[in-house]
């Protein structure tokens, strides 16, 4: 006879079993037949042949074949304080992880119920500090979905090994939380349930960081501080905010990153530390990219130029981590001569000072000449390396960016210039010709936003606007990137509300309607235009 006694709901359930016949001794649970196979074979206690990305047994039965996280980098010494330093972590080698196989396997994982936000704990999450199924999902999403959107396709594959970041993150709650926050922000565009989580992790980081600063436990040159501050900037970009809701938090975070890089430069020089770790170059290039793009959107970021010197950044921007690789392969985000982006930043800052005084006008003309020289340099490289598809795409993007910078420079020098100006028309058509043939994948879409913003304000036909509108929609569909959404939303407002045609060409132009091309010299910044505040 079997009887079950159940207590009240507030207490635990107790079960007693009585039977008239003796029970047989319990059999021990079957042994796990594989310790290194896929999760599905471990769960089913089957021998896994460990074929990747899909083992034979999973392929045979149509199961989802999901693998454990790959081994992380090796820490050479015991971490102290807030976690291990970059110098204590083995940087990735040329023969590291097969990124393609890993991503295909995780694509399958993202299709299962692991996206459910729960509090189930598991011993198989792969990283210390990962406590819930949601965090497990986001840690994988961070590595396999979010990080690839930051890395350009031309970069050396060693930059795609994020082991060193994950090692630091697994031993520092602030870093892990900002990784989870940025991943949740990106994932939140397709699954809104992750939005509250992203804010939760972000607030946790800000609170911990303020406490560390208030208690004076940071010096300013820590590895963890460098990483956290860079990802705070990326978190803000990922929000996709514009105008009245455009969060100038990114400006304060960038200012902090500028100071950290300045302190770091002095310390690294004094201690003669190696500058070749991928994280250092990636962070320096991220700062450069975010500085000139953010300044274009919000003139408050102009102040960044007073917080660092390019001489301090140069060693990081020119450190070649992977010997034998070409220069563009060692530049994971910018891809080409970093001085082009320095010039672009200066042009942006000048555009906020229209009308220019004599000194500024002279400087603007110098910057335009620099851009012409860079364009010639890129053109010659295209003749030499044009057969390599990766290089060809990079050079096409770089020339388009230079064209956009020249459009902004010419408008800044002559504010009365209209989009019908022959020089502007030629630059726009050259850029549009590139956009019609270049491939824009989900990786690196953010790097097209700045030139696209300028080109989109300089077009003068409905056909060109229709093309750019569809292009931005396609970019958003592929990337789910906050920076793409921000630009797409702004341009839809501008194209609807502003006059893009020239009175020289079209008789029915509304003379009282503000001109689209004038948006480029909006004193407060592109995203601070009054139309975007409604």
Keywords for this structure?
534 residues, mainly alpha, 3 domains, two-stranded antiparallel ribbon, disordered N terminus, DNA-binding transcription factor activity, RNA polymerase II-specific, nucleus, zinc ion binding, Zn2Cys6_DnaBD
Task: Summarize this entry quickly.
With 534 residues, this protein is mostly helical. The protein has helices spanning 39-44, 56-61, 99-109, 133-150, 163-170, 173-187, 195-214, 223-238, 249-271, 278-297, 310-317, 338-351, 358-385, 389-413, 422-437, 446-458, 462-479, 482-497; strands spanning 2-3, 16-17.
Shape: globular
- Number of distinct beta strands: 2
Q: How does the helix and strand content classify structurally? A: mainly alpha
Show unreliable segments.
1-23, 69-81, 88-126, 505-511
Sheet having the most strands: 2 strands, antiparallel
User: What is the number of domains?
Assistant: 3
Report, as a whole number of angstroms, the end-to-end distance: 74 Å
In spatial order, strands of the major sheet run: 1-2
Number of helices: 18
Looking at the chains present, what oligomeric state does this protein adopt? single chain
Question: How large a portion of the residues is in β-strands, by DSSP E?
Answer: under 5%
Average pLDDT level: 81
- Helix-strand topology string: EEHHHHHHHHHHHHHHHHHH
The helicity comes to 40-55%
> What is the alpha-carbon Rg in Å?
27 Å
């Amino acid at each position: 006879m079997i009887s079950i006694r159940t207590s009240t709901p507030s207490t635990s359930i107790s079960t007693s079993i009585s039977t008239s016949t003796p029970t047989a001794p319990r059999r021990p649970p079957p042994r796990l037949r594989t310790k290194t196979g896929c999760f599905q074979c471990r769960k089913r206690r089957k021998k896994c042949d460990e074929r990747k990305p899909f083992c034979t047994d999973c392929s045979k039965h149509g199961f989802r074949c999901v693998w454990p996280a790959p081994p992380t980098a090796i820490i050479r010494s015991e971490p102290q304080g807030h976690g291990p330093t970059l110098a204590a972590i083995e940087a990735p080698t040329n023969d590291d992880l097969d990124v393609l196989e890993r991503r295909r396997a995780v694509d399958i994982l993202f299709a299962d119920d692991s996206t459910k936000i729960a509090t189930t704990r598991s011993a198989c999450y792969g990283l210390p500090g990962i406590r819930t199924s949601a965090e497990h999902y986001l840690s994988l999403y961070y590595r396999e979905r979010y990080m690839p959107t930051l890395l350009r396709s031309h970069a050396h594959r060693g930059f795609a090994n994020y082991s060193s970041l994950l090692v630091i993150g697994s031993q520092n709650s602030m870093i892990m939380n900002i990784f989870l926050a940025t991943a949740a922000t990106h994932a939140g565009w397709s699954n809104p349930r992750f939005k509250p989580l992203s804010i939760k992790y972000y607030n946790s980081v800000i609170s911990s960081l303020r406490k560390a600063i208030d208690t004076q436990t940071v010096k300013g040159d820590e590895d963890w501080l460098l990483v956290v501050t860079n990802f705070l900037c990326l978190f803000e970009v990922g929000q996709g905010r514009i105008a009245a809701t455009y969060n100038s938090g990114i400006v304060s975070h960038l200012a902090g990153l500028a100071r950290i890089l300045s302190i770091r430069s002095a310390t690294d020089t004094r201690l003669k530390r190696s500058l070749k770790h991928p994280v250092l170059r990636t962070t320096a290039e991220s700062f450069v990219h975010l500085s000139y793009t953010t300044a274009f959107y919000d003139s408050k970021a102009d102040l960044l130029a007073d917080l660092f010197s390019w001489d301090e950044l140069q060693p990081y921007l020119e450190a070649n981590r992977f010997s034998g690789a070409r220069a563009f392969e060692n530049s994971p985000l910018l891809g080409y001569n970093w001085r082009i982006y320095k010039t672009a930043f200066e042009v942006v800052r000048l555009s906020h000072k229209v009308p220019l005084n004599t000194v500024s006008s002279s400087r603007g003309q110098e910057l335009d000449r620099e851009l012409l020289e860079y364009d010639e340099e890129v053109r010659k490289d295209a003749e030499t390396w044009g057969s390599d598809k990766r290089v060809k795409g990079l050079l096409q993007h770089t020339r388009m960016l230079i064209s956009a910078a020249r459009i902004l420079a010419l408008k800044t020098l002559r504010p009365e210039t209209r989009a019908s100006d022959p020089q502007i028309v030629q630059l726009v058509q050259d850029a549009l010709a590139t956009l019609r043939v270049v491939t824009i994948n989900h990786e690196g879409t953010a790097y097209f936003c700045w030139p696209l913003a300028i080109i989109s304000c300089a077009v003068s036909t409905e056909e060109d606007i229709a093309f750019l509108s569809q292009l931005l929609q396609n970019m958003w569909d592929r990337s789910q990137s906050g920076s793409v959404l921000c630009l797409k939303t702004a341009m839809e407002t501008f194209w609807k509300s502003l006059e893009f045609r020239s009175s020289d060409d079209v008789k029915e132009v509304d003379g009282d309607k503000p001109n689209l091309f004038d948006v480029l010299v909006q004193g407060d910044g592109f995203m601070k235009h009054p139309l975007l505040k409604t």
